[in-house]
Write a structure and sequence with these properties.
The strands form three sheets. Strands 1-5-6-11-10-9-7-8 form an eight-stranded mixed β-sheet, sandwiched between helices. The chain folds into two domains: about 250 residues, BirA Bifunctional Protein, domain 2; about 90 residues, Anticodon-binding domain (Rossmann fold). By secondary structure, it is α+β, with helices and mostly antiparallel strands. It is elongated. The longest helix has 21 residues. α1 packs antiparallel against α5 and α5 runs parallel beside α9.
Length: about 425
């Protein structure tokens, strides 16, 4: 019986890997411009890290994590997001030493047990950015601008930025009380999850995807009416910095994000042509997370971009660049007796830094030339028994169809000069 990949996962095949490399190149370019350094964390962490960091009232922790017990009896979870892991690495490796602001980015696989759909998988890939150690709202603005500029650099135009403040531990209890008062008479109509959230974290009700809960939440109090003076001032200054940078946005008082660690700024970037699942990037400030994980109180802000969603958007808008898989030289060996000489030449070409291929099946010259065309070879080197005796080869330029005899001593240097200029 043929074995298939698990549901919700997808192979990235050779003909598509160029698109991923293109995205990763763009990520590294823009992060370099903004001064962010790459970090790579383990694919799995202790489960407690995500329970404490993300919040046990979130759908991610309650329903979507891949958790197992290892042979040592420890509870381990495949990372469902990377912020908590990045903060853990920041603390464990003392990345805060000697600097007021630590700027990190990552690219990697995340895992959530969710219903697979277009651009959403159970193993998915995120690009994320984290800035730790600075409270200044200019850092919030920088993070948001980086996310928008990255997406714009790919050619995406129909982007919309939504912005909100979710308050802080000082003002959020006031909002919590108002929400509970609002939903008190509607509690029986809420879904089972939201009934549970009513006592634990009523803000999560606003993020529920059930249509009935969305209808019952219409007219709910807005958190911006409950902000303390510090949060209100911070939010105002973030907006001022965004306007200064020419970034358009709309305020969305219902935007709370799906993770419990957010404080103050929350934002989301949507790409409308993707339809109902249009969010491609989102994030915000999480000033309490470092302390929650065991560090000193440390302000922090970040975002994550779903790369599958971005690739889907680029494909829909035909914005993916053509990335031909070209080879410098293809060696055509005519006859069994020249295979050794052709293989020796092939290795010499590769040692000289040329990308080179040859046919190992001993097919006809016509079949080998067809293979060279399929490989987009710039040059073909033809070796037959006569060429081996003469210590020469026929060099053919596949673009101009010109060909010439070149000695074995000269052919590597000539090819390097042609290919590398």
């Amino acid at each position: 019986m043929l074995m298939n990949a698990p549901r919700g996962t997808k192979d990235i095949l050779p003909d598509g890997i160029g698109q991923w490399l293109y995205l990763e190149q763009k990520i590294r370019e823009i992060c370099g411009c903004y001064g962010y350094k790459e970090i790579r964390t383990p694919l799995f962490e202790h489960t407690e890290l995500f329970q404490r960091g993300i919040g046990d009232t979130t759908d991610v922790v309650e329903k979507e994590m891949y958790t197992f017990t290892d042979r040592g009896g420890r509870s381990i979870t495949l990372r469902p997001e990377n912020t908590a892991a990045a903060v853990r690495a920041y603390l464990q490796n003392k990345l805060y030493a000697g600097t007021a602001l630590t700027k990190l980015f990552y690219i990697g696989s995340m895992f959530r047990y969710d219903r697979p759909q277009a651009g959403r998988y159970r193993e998915f890939h995120q690009f994320g950015v984290e800035a730790l150690g600075e409270m200044n709202p200019a850092v919030d603005a920088e993070i948001i601008i980086l996310a928008v500029r990255f997406l714009e650099s790919l050619g995406l135009k129909d982007l919309s930025l939504s912005l909100n403040s979710v308050g802080c531990p000082q003002c959020r209890p006031v909002y919590r009380q108002r929400l509970q008062e609002f939903f008190k008479d509607k509690l029986s109509g809420l879904c089972e999850d939201c009934q549970s959230r009513y006592d634990r974290n009523p803000m999560r009700i606003l993020d529920c995807k059930h249509e009935q809960c969305q209808q019952l939440s219409i007219g709910a109090p807005e958190i911006t009416d409950c902000l303390c003076d510090e949060c209100r001032d911070h939010f105002s200054r973030v907006q001022e910095y965004l306007r200064t940078a020419g970034i358009s946005f709309q305020l969305d008082p219902r935007l709370v994000r799906g993770l419990d660690y957010y404080t103050k700024t929350a934002f989301e970037v949507k790409y409308a042509p993707l339809g109902a699942q249009s969010a491609v990037a989102g994030g915000g400030r999480y000033d309490g997370l470092v302390e929650e994980i065991g560090g000193s109180p440390t302000p922090a802000v970040g975002f994550a971009v779903g790369l599958e969603r971005v690739l889907l958007a680029l494909e829909q808008q035909q914005l993916l660049p053509a990335l031909p898989d070209a080879v410098d030289v293809f060696v055509v060996a005519l006859g069994e007796n020249v295979q050794t000489a052709a293989f020796q030449l092939l290795m010499a070409m590769r040692s000289a830094g040329l990308s080179a291929q040859m046919d190992f099946a001993g097919r006809s010259m016509k079949a080998q030339m067809k293979q060279a065309n399929k490989a987009n070879a710039r040059f073909v080197v033809i070796l037959g028994e006569d060429e081996v005796r003469e210590q020469a080869a026929t060099l053919r330029n596949m673009q101009t169809s010109e060909q010439e005899k070149v000695t074995m001593k000269e052919i590597i240097n000539k090819l390097c000069a042609e290919v590398k200029g």
